[in-house]
Amino acid sequence: MKKDKYLKELTINETQKRHGDNTKKDVMKIQSWLSLYAIQNPESGTVTGIDGDFGPATEKAVKNFQKATKSSQNGIVTPQLFEKLCEGMKDAFERPLQSITLRNAMVEAAENHLRNAPFELEIKGQSNSGPWVRAYMDGHDGSPWYWCMGFAQTILDQAASALGKDFRSLMPLTYSCDTVGTTGLSKGLLTRYQTVRNNPSVMKPGDFFLLQKSRYDWTHTGIIISVGNDVIETIEGNTNQAGSRNGIAVLKRTRNFRKSKLDVFSIEPLV
Predict the structure, then answer these.
(1) Where in the numbering of this chain does the Peptidoglycan binding-like domain appear (predicted)?
(2) Rounded to the nearest 5 degrees, what angle is found at the Cα of 207, between the Cα atoms of 248 and 256?
(3) Can you name the residues that pair with 243 across neighbouring β-strands?
(4) Is 241's pLDDT higher than 90?
């Protein structure tokens, strides 16, 4: 994969514990993963502040995680325990894809990520933060870093790489919907929403949708995984139940393409 910054989210430099010789950055990673674990396991009691201080609250959250995962409840985070904390990301990025076509691999990779519940955090008052955002955005996070394109390109990169292809032959590495939209126009790969409505067959699983604000301004993107008569099913990042371009998670959504301005970027040349 070309987008490999996720690897930094899977390790800590050394064991971290209360009253230990701790590294603030590693403690914040631990606190982040403890809070992310609680999103899928709300009864676990692992939510804690993300401030880099391994105090009594973090120690208790670690013990609660250890209890939930049937580990020794000593409140100490070894590199091995940290691997358990972030095993969902490792699975999402490194589970071997079984598909032999790019379109199927796109859907498979997107579903693998969805299953592991990528979610953003708010850290030091900044939304769009945390391990998942940094993994998709090549190390960047914070409120300005809308991550829907980062997620979509990660899926494309993962699927293409599994088949020995480089996604950058199709589009540049970017976090901008506008860049992908204008690239699609210049290469003849972007179908406007008016045509999409009249001929849904132009959309195929694995293609990107681009939500159009104006003719040359797009505000959100995601991966199309299935196409129906009036709706598409998608997997998209930085969204919520309302389909926001600045939401909180990777979600599977259903969108009515006949009522939305959804342009479509085709990945066909890479297929």
Answers:
(1) 25-85
(2) 65
(3) none
(4) no
pTM of the model: 0.97
Average pLDDT over the chain reads: 97
Interatomic CA distance for residues 25 and 147, integer angstroms: 22
pLDDT tens-digit readout, 165-221: 999 999 999 999 999 999 999 999 999 999 999 999 999 999 999 999 999 999 999
Asked if residue 66 belongs to a domain, the reply is yes
Is the separation of the CB atoms in 178 and 218 below 8 Å? yes
d(CA 64, CA 77): 12
| 117 in any annotated domain | yes
174, 81: one domain: no
Which are the contacts of 44, defined by CB distance < 8 A and separation ≥ 6? 37, 38, 64, 65, 68
pLDDT at 197: 97
CA distance 198 to 170: 26
Residues 56 and 120 in one domain: no
Co-location of 70 and 148 in the same domain: no
Q: Indicate the number of domains in the chain.
A: 2
113 within a domain of the structure (yes/no): yes
- Residue 133 in contact with residue 145, Cβ under 8 Å? yes
Judgement on whether residues 38 and 110 belong to the same structural domain of the protein: no
pLDDT in tens, 9-44: 999 999 999 999 999 999 999 999 999 999 999 999
Structural domain for 11, as ranges: 5-85
Q: State both tokens at 169.
A: 């032959």
